[in-house]
Every structure is written in C-alpha cells, then in structure tokens.
Amino acid sequence: MAYWLVKSEPDAFSWDQQVANGTEPWTGVRNALAAKHLRAMRAGDRAFFYHSNLGKEIVGVVEVAREAYPDPTEEVAQGKAPRWCCVDMRAVGAVPAPVTLAAIKAEPALAELALIRQSRLSVMPVSQEHWVLLCRMGGWAAG
DNA sequence: GCCAACGTTGGC
DNA sequence: GCCAACGTTGGC
C-alpha cells in the first residue's frame, strides 16, 4: 500500500465536510504532476488530509475508495479528450493531534517531505518512513 | 497584503 | 523551441 498527502483549502473543502460526506470525489486537480500522483493511487491507499492556507496542518486520514476516473468538474471542449482525473476519498478518521506545518518543518527527518520541498504541489507521495513518523506525531495509532 | 515559487501562455 | 509575461498557490 502506498501513502499520500492531499491538500485542501478549508474554505473550499474542509475535513469536516469530508467527514460529513463520508466518501467524496477529490476533484479540481489541474496540475500535471499532481494528476500523475492521482493516477498512481490504488484502492485502499491512505492519505493525510492537509488544510492549506487556513490551519496549515494535517487534520485527518482518508482512504482511496475509487481509483482515477475522469474529473467531472473539468470542462471538456468539443472534440477534445478529457485531460484531468479525480479519485474518490473516504474519511477514515481525524488525527487526534493535528500535525502543524511548523512541527513538520521543525522535524529534521521530514526535511525531504514534498510538502516542504514543493510547497505548491497539492497531491504528493509520502514514504512509509515519513508516514509512520507523521502518524506518531499526530497520535494516530491505527497506522 | 505581500512575495517567492513555479506552471502556463503566447509571441517570436 | 525559447523565453518573457502573467496567473496561481500557499506561506508568512
């Protein structure tokens, strides 16, 4: 199983909404690298749900419920092929102690995390080592 | 509100 | 195909 981190601005789509909806299409990704990561996701993969801008912290864990399919929010011009994709994410649970960006930056072992290195990327892989460490920092026991 | 990073667009 | 201009993201 692979691990990921996905970002959302809570103004646009928050963790509370994800929990309320249960399973939700993760749409609106319009970046080639982020889309590539979406396509690499497999059902059952887990991802951290990160609040960007407001909060700037990992607040929950989601699971890939459906693998990549065409993003219904893309406006496809006549005669053009759809370009973007989305996946469905299912809420697994809230992180007991949200892991802030400041805490991540303060942890030398996380210096290579894409969240730090490529701040604008909205969907990124997380290594197993980083996943375990971030779970520990957040008091997430389930792994 | 500002600015750095960086992806995209369009002129050549 | 290059590169300057521009737009967007996201931290501060």
UniProtKB/TrEMBL annotation:
Residues 2-137 form the EVE domain. CDD domains: EVE (cd21133). Pfam families: EVE. Gene3D superfamilies: ph1033 like domains (3.10.590.10). This is EVE domain-containing protein. It comes from Teichococcus coralli.
